[in-house]
Design a protein that fits this description.
Distance between the termini: 101 Å
CATH topology of the largest domain: Chaperone, DNAj Protein, Chain A
Largest sheet: 4 strands, mixed
Structural class: alpha+beta
Number of domains: 3
Number of helices: 10
Helix content: 25-40%
Strand content: 25-35%
Bound molecules: zinc ion
Number of strands: 15
Shape: elongated
Strand order of the largest sheet: 10-11-15-14
Length: 374
Amino acid sequence: MTEYEKDWFEKDYYAILGVTDKAPSKEIKKKYRKLARELHPDANPGDAKAEERFKEVSAAYDVIGDEKKRSRYDEVRKMGPIGGGFGGGFGGGAQANTGNFNVGMHDIGDLLGGLFNRGGRGPNRQRSATGQRGADSEAQLTLNFNDAVNGLETVLTLTGEAVCSVCGGTGAEPGSLPSKCESCDGSGVHDENQGLFSFSRPCQSCGGRGSVITAPCATCASSGVQVRDRDVKVRIPAGVKSGQKLRLKGRGAPGRFGGGPGDLFVHIKVEPHSLFGRSGRDLTLEMPITFAEAALGADIEVPTLNGEVVKMRVPQGTESGKTFRLKGRGGSGDLLVTVAVVVPAELSAEQREAVEAFAQASTVSPRAHFGVQY
Ligand SMILES: [Zn+2]
Ligand SMILES: [Zn+2]
């Protein structure tokens, strides 16, 4: 493979011209003419960006506008990017990074990626042939009821493999950086041309990494990985339940030799609440009421999770076991209040008199429809 063809991995000429790789040559020609007209320096005097685009478009058309070159280009690209190199691996595993931790590792990855990553292209950069993905980490997190309902941000301290604190994951002594492998020019592979095809084999000098470490980090033996405590900031979403397992992408152990990091799995345990339970997104509460309140109706006070007390109307003639929904009072959902009529275990003389009077006045048995007398 020639230097010129190596460029082909990095440049998607179809994308540059805004056509698919299945586009017929007529369409490519049409698209090129349109773009060339729009971007032509004569039409955009002094516009450096347009001029750059014009050059890009011309270079793309030079290859895929020519049937012979196009089929060779397709063939080369089908073989895939080779030798992602040192930086490619770091970038390959990077996920959205919201916290402040382990950012350093990706920063270094990006830095080195810019220097050494010849084989990769764009966001699809491949891991180096030797890169090892980091292990997944596991953590237990016990939450109190409120935090589980409302969500929280917390810091987990994990013991295990972490980015080396001395070299920051580069594997090289502080003050030095891995340097580009001269033997393979940083690509991690050597190409051998055999007629129409070219084959690549991993570079012996750098083990396929594309970079060499002349001053290995003593702390991590140039692996970039060290066993130690590390703090991981995690955001627990509102509404997690006991037994749930949260997966935090890229927060596991760091990879080695350019491999991406593993994931972190957080096992959730939620402590029960003395008053409230949960039903889906809603909270539940069992509310004791007296027979008199159920029979006559009453305005009662209901506690909520945030400490506020809200009023609830129990209509007259409410059956024990009836559930009332208080909208928006149960964390991110509603509060489901189920009333339970409480029967006093003991009665005062006054209460006994009142209940006996009630019994005297009750002429219809609630079991009358069973066809029984008592
Ligand atoms: Zn180190
Ligand atoms: Zn090499």
